[in-house]
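Q: Fold this one first, please.
A: Sequence and structure below.
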Amino acid sequence: MRTALGLIKACHPEPTLAVTTVAALLAVGTGRSAAGVAAVAATILASQLAVGWANDAIDAPRDAAVGRAGKPIVAGRVSRRTVAVGAVAAAAVTAPLALLSGVPAALVATVGLASALLYDWPLKSTAVSVVPYAVSFAALPAFVVLGVARPPGWLLAAGALLGAGAHFANVLPDLDDDARTGVRGLPHRLGAGWSAAAAAGLLLAATAALAFGPPGPPSWVGLAGLVAAVLVLLVGGYAAGRHPGSRLPFLAVLVVAVLDVVLLLAAGALLSAG
């Protein structure tokens, strides 16, 4: 039981559950059958487990160096070897599960997984650290939609922009710890201020792609999401100027990311209707 709980914690359960849920809801929105939705959820869950476990296994020495006692490997709740074996096993079953959605979808899912694993090592500490996020986030909606239709370019662009923005937002809280252990990804090279601006700009661009990308006039949902994103980011920028060190800019970026996910799910329904 201790090992099982350690594995659950090491897989980064919150983002794993969130991404799997979003993929399943997108599959429902695009009109996939119950079996198709289950196949999508199983594939994305396996790939997220692989990436999360690989991340913790690879980063265990760094996590110990900066005293991240909340990490299960550092806390001794599960061995590094067990987590690494779990990552390999989850990665191995991802492609067979993805084949349930067809060969093209399986190829895209495999590319998305490989890209995410390359971020874990070695690209996290390079100037191109943002690329795996962009590729993997674009691959997710492409994989889901390929089960029923050809994914449009605007959807892939929105996924890539959302992923790139998520990278900058995700790294912001850990910049100091990362610097202490030699991680020098693109956000670290740009610094906190420019990284926050990059996160906001990329997520706003993703919002615009989701609002204006679908054919026909923009929906009221898309326009409302775009207006809300602009207002939220303006509040975050104002807080950054008036109160340096405030968490509001970071929270504003997270809110826009959530808005983008909502618009992504709405886009899935549009694709199904089309």
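Q: Good. Now the second chain.
A: Here it is, same layout.
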Amino acid sequence: MKYSLYAITTKTNTHVGSGQTNAGIVDNVVQRDLVSKLPIIQSTSLKGALKEWLKKGLEKPKEAEAIFGVEGKDNVQASHYIFPATMLSFPMRSNQYFYFNVTCPAIITDLKKQLNTFGINDYDADLAALAAIDPTISQPVSLENRPNVIIEKHSIKTTGYAGANYSLYIKKLFGDNVAIMNDQDFTTITKRLPVITRNQLENGKSENLFYEEILPRESHLTFLIGYQKNEKTLFDTEIGENKLFQVGANATVGYGFCELNKIK
């Protein structure tokens, strides 16, 4: 079995629902990892979105069936294994720049371990250097040496680790203008994702307001795809990279459009 690493960047607000509520405060919450509690796109949701996109968006139903399989009477085994998409960085506004892509040491360490488990060791040095940065609470570290900037009430502390030192692949994963935040701060922030008020219509009339949790645009996630060696070309040829696809609910109002990029 071989594995490829892909990155997802949300280009519009995205809601991949868990089917649960948040103690009645939020009507529709996003999917979250059972261990880290961070936002996630489960394998079933991601596979379904990619299959639908290839089948209808790119008008390649036979290729979609070959890669992702067919359920039911004409059951066909999928040739590729789709892993969950886990969060890497989260956009946060600042007083001098539009936003920073914020991450934390726990995410970086977990990514390094996951890649090592599946035989992808190309980024060990980069990830180890990033994971070694240990921000204090309320003082995120800017990798591009941008001091004295306020990130949504958090003051950045400049580090000697310059942004030019980390590779293009790391930037493709985490985005530009990266800041590393203390694990505790990051956990607190991602517990309170942005919430959008939606209007429930019945026969064209407003009947009720409901509240929906979202991943904002420019959130970064990553996932693995497993395949037999001779099957790699099919996915790369048909899916490729730098492609837009839609995942989750509310496509008709522009939710869930994401950019897909192959990293390794």
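Q: Anything worth noting on the second one?
A: The mean pLDDT is 84.
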